[in-house]
Amino acid sequence: PKTSDRKKFVILYQQTKNQLQKLVEHDKHKMMTATWKAVQSQLEVIEQKSRQPQVNYRRLNEELDLISKDLSVRFQELKARVAGKKAGPNKEDAQGNKKDKSKEKTKEKAKTQEQKQGPPLKADPNFIDFYQLLGIKSDASEADIKKAYRTKIKEYHPDHHDASTFKWVKEEAGRMTQKLGEGYEILRDPKQRATYDKMRKQQG
Q: Is the pTM of this model over 0.70?
């Protein structure tokens, strides 16, 4: 019914606005300001459409749902960027010869460990948490991964968003479909999954 679609719209719109506000506050270094402004503009367009006489709340709800899910992915991207920033060189802390020797020992130990295990992976700002994207736990079984993938791919399939008036919605649906496919192929393969889990752990 149209009334229930309208109520859902009011709730979804407010939730998405709050979600965006939290991300803006979390982005203290303003790494993704352009992204947040773009999303804000999209929300303003949706609000304007909701005031039109012949408003299709169901379609607007689908667009809000997609924005919300995209913001969840952006949050993972922001976390990875922050982790990468923290992983940068620390300021030198001069406190005498004792600390210098301690640093040398630490460097030697790290060098030895690197020779044994290879260089540590750096935090990747473009790293995507496929577990979160699929909505599953890190110890999910192969059956759980397959089930989650089938559910998510139905939500994001571009065919479901052809009617959208927003070009970015269709593009985002295609991008998410591609990422879901990548995640599924990696997590369903034991060897690739083991390698990915190590990378994921490195992201912090």
A: no
